[in-house]
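Hi R.,

Here's the chain you asked about this morning:
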Amino acid sequence: MDTALSEALNRIVGLGQAGRFAEAQALAQSLTADRPDDAAPHHLLGLALQQGGEPEAALLPLRRAMDLEPQTAVFHMHFGIAAAQAGQLDAAESSLQRALDLAPGHVEARYNLALILERQGRLADAAEVLTALVAAAPDHVAARIRLGTLHRKNGRLPESLDMIEGALQLAPGHADGHFARAMTLVALERKDEAEAAYRQAIRLQPNLQMAINNLGILLEGRGQPREAMAVYEAAVARDPTQSAPRLNLARLLADSRETRRAIDHYRFLLARDPDNLAVLDSLVFHLRELADWSEIDTLMDRLVKGIEARAAAGEEVAVPPFSALSLPLTSQVQQAVARSHVRKLAGNIAPLAPRPLSASGPLRIGYLSADFREHPVAHLVAGLMSAHDRHQVSVTAYALGPADDSQWRQRVIAGCDRFVALKSGQPHASAQRIRDDGIDILVDLTGYTRFGEPEILAHRPAPVQVNWLGFPGTFGAPWVDFVLADPVVVPPQDDVWFDETVIRLPGCYLIHDRNQPLAEWTPTRAELGLPEHGFVFSCFNNAYKITPEVFADWMAILAAAPDSVLWLLKGPDESLTHFRMYAQEHGIDPDRLIFASHEPKPRHLARYRQADLILDTPIYNAHITASDGIWGGVPVLTRPGDTFAGRVAASLARSVGLDDMIVSSRADYVARAVALAKDPDAYGEVRRRISQARFNSPLFDVQTFARHLEAAFRDMRAARGG
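And here is the predicted structure, written out as tokens:
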């Protein structure tokens, strides 16, 4: 190499080391024009582009360098790193493997190959590569930490801790090492030590967001939300530009009913990143929670169009699948949202070794839920466990999330053959336990709702996996085989929007436990704040399901039925203020809106006796709210939406013979409600049908429902060749 070329190359290297990438790129570009057949300038141009944040642009000059000197291992390695940054994982793996063929002892090529394999979900292969690397280069701290992390993900916790602590002996000031050690200590349930390790990582690197977030989450999990808030607030105060701790702070504030403060943080984040759909979605949700509609149309339109555009382009949507259910989106877009979530979820999860489905005998059924507690899901399924025919199935309940000593949890425990409390946040270990228990069919009752761990199903612990009850939509995942539905919530033409095979149960897919206690006490209207006379319309749905459009319809109903009132569920004080204000704007006396406090389930069911008609919300219906109302003897009027979540009330109404309470337009919705309020005879006839349905409808017949469910399980086994 001549002196001029050598000096020019050194200048490019120096500029890159100084972070002056644009100047390095310009000089390298000039040099490649002058010396097109020299590999080194092309190589340095590629490095300058890659280090400057343009990995895709870097690939062309790096490829040119490889073509000019195909035996130079470092060229292949750098091409592999850039390809990985550009998302071209197969090309990255191939190039890094070629680098190792040329230079088997190249430590960095081997380390980067392991990272690629991990990103592809090939955790065992990545661990094998790193094990060989650590054996050859025992002082490679990053390799030790990464291998320790892989051991943790693969459930090898003692080996994980040993490997990471060995790395920290070599580099006691390695912040990422302390963070990795904390993660393993959490998995080992050594949470005091984990807290100390997280705090040490933060002391060493104050802006290490993952450590900050995980420390906060650890404190939250230990029932210390205020301490977690303090961690997030300190991080935000130290660096206001950090988004992750601010997001967690906003979430905790919302959970603590400091919703307006949470909204202020979401607005701050959205101002910095206007295209962040996850933040926009949270802002919209919490504004709806407060019934603050001052700009909801504009924000909702922006959110929906953003989701639709990214879904159409096949891009990451970043909106939680559960949030998408309450937005005006089609089933097709909701599926795209779920699939986007799955792509992100599946990146570092490897399936367990497959286990065959039992060919005969009772099927081993596992019910997985974070809601075997005082929760609507437990209210629905508590009676199912004991209703199952033990000649057909054996039943294991796998509980995630918070526990309580409620009667609902106790009924689940008493009704199943085994009850297993899994440790939250350990999806691999949970999946391994389910697989070791020999479960044939795993039924997820939580899905993408709070405290759910869909990662467990991603590990594929059971040969058949089912989505039912908790999440009214598609998982969007190849590892969920079936979804239990009915002909109303998922009509045949909608099958294409479900990645699962749809199995339709007779009647309504939603079970209802007839043995739910209904208090003998009936509160008087006065005790409930209701007027002594007049028709009582009710909707106990949460405020986020109520749109300006449906509220306008309710006000039209009240205007046409002058002696009526609207009975809503009490939410934040600010939401009550807004609802009253909107009523006034529609010309309705705000005092005609009555707000019901939250009550224990038996008293809640009993007070339904004082309601006359449930008014449903169309995008996301009343589900168990409608089921409870029907059980309490109250008819539901529904205008079905276009998705699973928007058709549940119609399915419930049809199952109890109330097809005439399902309407297709806003005008019919208003007219039908007003007609019932004004015609006591017509209303009395509907009420009589409800009273009869409580005793003869399949909706409230748990034994018959269990037989239908067992038949569906047998169909699944037959479809899988078991």
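One quick note: The chain has four domains: 3-187, 259-348, 363-514+704-719, 525-700.

Cheers,
M.
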